[in-house]
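Need G protein-coupled receptor kinase's 3D structure for a figure. Predict it.
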Amino acid sequence: MELENIVANTVLLKAREGGGGKRKGKSKKWKEILKFPHINQCEDLRRTIDRDYCSLCDKQPVGRLLFRQFCETRPGLESYIQFLDSVAEYEVTPDEKLGEKGKEIMTKYLTPKSPVFITQVGRDLVSQTEEKLLQKPCKELFSACVQQPVTKNTFRQYRVLGKGGFGEVCACQVRATGKMYACKRLEKKRIKKRKGESMALNEKQILEKVNSRFVVNLAYAYETKDALCLVLTIMNGGDLKFHIYNMGNPGFEEERALFYAAEILCGLEDLHHENIVYRDLKPENILLDDYGHIRISDLGLAVKIPEGDLIRGRVGTVGYMAPEVLNNQRYGLSPDYWGLGCLIYEMIEGQSPFRGRKEKVKREEVDRRVLETEEVYSHKFSEEAKSICKMLLTKDAKQRLGCQEEGAAEVKRHPFFRNMNFKRLEAGMLDPPFVPDPRAVYCKDVLDIEQFSTVKGVNLDHTDDDFYSKFSTGSVPIPWQSEMIETECFKELSVFGPHVPSHGPEPKPPSGTAKEGLLRGSSSVSIKTIPRVHPIPRPVLTTTSIQTTEILTLMNKNSSILEVVPEETGFCSPAALNLCMFPRICHSAAVSRSNHCCFGFFFKRNKFLNENTAAFFPSELFCSFCQSQLPSRCQDLPLRSLS
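Structure prediction for G protein-coupled receptor kinase:
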């Protein structure tokens, strides 16, 4: 039994370290796994994808990277990117240096005599672009995020880490990239027996919506024959309950408790920004990553509050539910600030405010204490810590800290956080007070984790398919793009042309038992993909010559609309990953050029740059058929500012 636990931990640690070698945990056939379907399969996505700057050029990591690469290679735009970087640096500059940094920005970028002076764009150019887009944008614009089917064969599975309400949580690794995640399995029969479909779908949709440094992110959602699976940020450092009670004397030094409280507050703020109330704040649900930063996990009880409305629901964990929840009153975001008060108290004191450690007491008695008694403070609390706990644990929600119009901003101004620079914290620039041991596995032994019993008397049928289809939606764009960049897959795939190897037959899934797969560790498998037509060989065009941002349009020198290319020559290039690029044939003004292929783009810039838009042609263009460069009259178009 002990040997089985040692083997499971050893395999998991090896996977976390990258498995050794240059591939860093990637499958040998990772490039085949990441191949894309034919561009024709993306037509529906082309019609529905959001094309605003904020989404494509700021929030989405690949779009942001491509946008920056293009701007940095154009002298006229490089200064704009430098300006935005300087403003970002200003926002996380320590207070004592803000004045100096501000003067530096003013002098360098906002002084007319400066060589990198930031100019403005006139309204006439804005009007021109708006008029152009209102004509026939569907013929001119193309942009798509290609998703492949995600199945259990997309991942390698490792040891069980714990258990949730509907199934186990285990470690897993993406075969294509080597990225480690936690896979939360929700057994289909168990969900159906408990009528938990709405709860499971609600958690999935909320996780998909929230992209926060302080909340576990959903990367993939897929289904197997027996389960629905959520692939989440893996947190190797264990939960706060383990660290409060199992690492020396119960509780933390106030400095450490303050750091965790600040990060939890930032996570709550991100949830509240989406009008989501968490409702289950407790040490077990706060997890540490490899570096000692925390994330809020298990959003099963979280719910989105309709705008301007309140909700009612007696849900949560005994001892952590707010008085208004226990009384079944209508509430908004107030229960989360009560939970934060309970958590700060427990981190410092080493026990929850309304129940002693290992005290055996009925639920009714704990609820009575929450409603009627005041918490007791020991010598461990400073005056500031005592003050913030009292204000957060105010029984009247209307008087509670954080429950006014300012929300989390009011809590941040409390003297307890006097020395906390929240801007640097939110940027990930502050070092945590504790870093987990990378050689340790912070969870129970495999055999100590209680297994679920078999669900009997429940049958799955076609009536459940609609729910499963809503749940199993594949990869989530922003976490997936971050994974591609972090694992350097984007860097290696951001080239297309004759040097990219053609895709061979799909690799066969591994054979043998699951345990054999774990011990083998190097087996690889490809997910099934839609058959596609391979692109015509072309010279290599790197992302410095062809960039993708918010709006992609095809136009020739006379601004004529380029017609759709014949089906057999359209292809989705790995160069942009989920931001597709493909050639089209100019049948209007370019007929005399022997069907030369033209690329053209224009994109909307950041609002900080006055909605600046630029239309351009790459510096190097080649024909899809003869592979020769386009005539200079097509290449040498000047960079124009549109809007």
